[in-house]
Amino acid sequence: MATYRALLSLKSSLDDPDSRLSALSALRLLNLSNNVFNRTFPPELSNLTNLRVLDLYNNNLTGVLPVSVAHMTNLRHLHLCGNFSLYITVFFLLQCFARS
Q1: b or e along 73-88 (b: 16 or more beta carbons within 10 Å of the residue's beta carbon)?
Q2: Burial category of 61 from C-beta neighbours within 10 Å (exposed 0-12, middle 13-18, buried 19 and up)
Q3: 23 closest CA partner among 55, 56, 53, 48
Q4: Taking residues 38-64, what's their average pLDDT?
Q5: CA–CA separation, 25 vs 7, rounded Å?
Q6: Is the pTM of this model over 0.85?
Q7: Interacting residues of 6 by C-beta distance below 8 A, sequence separation 6+
Q8: Residue 66 near residue 44 (C-beta atoms within 8 A)
Q9: Do 67 and 88 touch, CB atoms closer than 8 A?
Q10: According to the model, what pLDDT value does residue 10 have?
């Protein structure tokens, strides 16, 4: 099986990114911006522990950002702008500061 380090998907047709992306454990960059998923944050993305960049700009994500994202220790850039119904809790921020 090929090892992918970057996956750029501009306006893809991924209705359910969870099942396909969680198997790509070597990914370092994932751009799923402008897909307008209209759903909660896909928790399986937190399993991509080698990610350094995760771009979810303009996807209408809803709910609360899972604390598991704060435990993605290699993540350096998380772009969530344009997700006006996605909330970040104080507990999430504390977890981020605790890891640094």
Answers
A1: eebeebebeebeebee
A2: buried
A3: 48
A4: 89
A5: 12
A6: no
A7: 27, 28, 29, 30
A8: no
A9: no
A10: 46
How much is the pLDDT for 1?
46
DSSP 97: H
- Count the residues in the chain: 100
DSSP helix/strand/coil, 68: helix
Q: What is the dihedral of CA 76, 68, 33, 75, to 10 degrees?
A: 10
CB 43 within 8 A of CB 21: no
Assigned token pair, 21:
């992306």
pLDDT at 85: 87
